[in-house]
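Sample pair:
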Amino acid sequence: MTNGDKKTFYITTPIYYPSGKLTIGNSYTTIAADTLARYKRAEGFDVFFLTGTDEHGLKIEEKAEENKMKPKEYVDMMASKIKELWKLLEISNDKFIRTTDDYHVKAVQKIVERLIKQGDVYLGEYTGWYSVDDEEYFTESQLAEVYRDKDGKVIGGKAPSGHEVQLVKEPSYFFKMSKYADRLLKYYEDNPTFIEPEIRKNEMINNFIKPGLEDLAMSRTTFNWGVQIPSDPKHVVYVWVDALLNYITALGYGTDDDSLFKRYWPADVQLVGKEIVRFHTIYWPIILMALGIDLPKQVFGHGWLLMKDGKMSKSKGNVVYPEMLVGRYGLDPLRYYLMRAMPFGNDGIFTPEDYVDRINYDLANDLGNLLNRTISMVNKYEDGKVTTVENVSDYDQKLVDASEQAIKEYRQHMDKFEFPDALASVWAFIGRANKYIDETKPWVLAKDPEAKAELASVLGHLVESLRLIALMISPVMTQSPIKMFAQLGLDYQKDTELKFGETSVGTTVTSDPEPIFPRLDTDEEVKFIKDKMAEEQAKNGNGKLSKSAQAKANEQAESDDDYPKEITYDDFSKVKMVVCEILDVKKVANADKLLQFKLDDGSGIDSQILSSIYEFYPDYEKLVGKKVIAVTNLKPRKIRGEWSNGMLLSSEKGDDVILATVDNSHKNGAILS
């Protein structure tokens, strides 16, 4: 839609369930949404950014009881804490909705009554398995594990999440999901980018729609903490229906003032974690179809931020909280790390080592060093003043060309929510600017009176490059660009044109520069993060787990890995494993752990794979000539400025990591099956 001369852009996060303290994994979605919202504002869009809390349901009722509080008291406390966290993370949301807000409750009641009246919702009886932790219903066939008595009768089980389920038998209102199944499938076909990444769409079609979409039990009578159905008040609306409607009630749908709804709906993108894609791409669009409302343009289901031992979980004791990282290292390193290190759409792995390395190498060495060198040279050679950005040499033009390419790639990636790639493009330009210093040698030019114009141009080009870099990182890093502009003597409110030009001319840089990213002691900081994680483990572990969580932990302790016991042949057939010969191997510059392998995979074209195994192979030259196994059909990733086109297989046991090798009788390019 448009608002006058501006295009509108409506972006939402899922509303968070306030049953516990949020981790960096929970914060990831909101920082991603904030990054996109800030980028779109900078590009001239009229943005509306929504986040909030999902405050109803049995789990909340139970949590309140555990804390000896009334449900409303409990959610008031938790919502306040989440708002404080978003303030700490400098989230620029335009609205924070709570499902206990009066206007939302009234709108939900109005909508449900309408759905009953028009025949999309009917009264029946539900019998099935319910997970309180997931707030989700399951059929017996959907359970990950089933418990039976001695006669073989099912008496319980576990949901796919690992949470216990309980048998529920009660009257319930059902939504006729089956009525809209064909229409939904056609919508998928007609709108191929509605669900991204595409793998999520395939999961929805194959796992839920094709087997037959069941009607949804959408009310409960066994607890009270929820939105009552006015015509039948012993029923409260199923928490997921209540929650999903927030995306339109927040805009005033179902109220006397729906001007925001008319202005911003349909949503341009709704960001969700992959575990709740089903609710947002099946239940949600069907509800909208029944109401005669346009569907959102896109639902993007991102991956999880994992730890080495699996998903971040309080029961495992492997949680990392954002407050700790921000308090120790500042906000921008956290925001940068989450947007750079985690491939958007896929799972990413957090390690303390990687976190500290990103700060030291990307922020302190690459960006911080470029800023410090530039300001020092402008002060030393030009009395702190920038007088020109006119091209004097071929090096100048090449830097301008590199800036234009970086800006183009940055925008292309940001428009597709490819935040790591967008930042990689910026960091490639940072690397080019650092190289430009080495090429032009300002310290040599300063000794030659005939090179005065060339020296002034070099320093002007560097200041202008830093201005562009600060603007490109500003959607991700909210504080550093302001500090950069201040040190460069620029106006953060005015000098915002994302194009190499005259903006920096006439500026006077600070005479007292300070490093904006001090270099960290790696061993000390890794130990600090690990110690904090151990503290959380002590709080949440050591016999304090629930019986079911403790049983699960015991099972994992007895197992050598955390992988699922079973996958299908179709799953396995998707992985292409190839015998490759190592032709060359070397360390990646500015990366303590990365080795760069040049491989013969039998195709006639050498391939390249990066692997973080230097600590296990300090004499890596001895690997040349060995034959290894590589997964070659993974999506290429750019790591430290180098492309990695696959993954080398290795075995891991305890602290030992060993590359999987085969003898020379295996031909290069042979496929393992």
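The chain has four domains: 8-109+240-323, 118-220, 351-508, 570-671.
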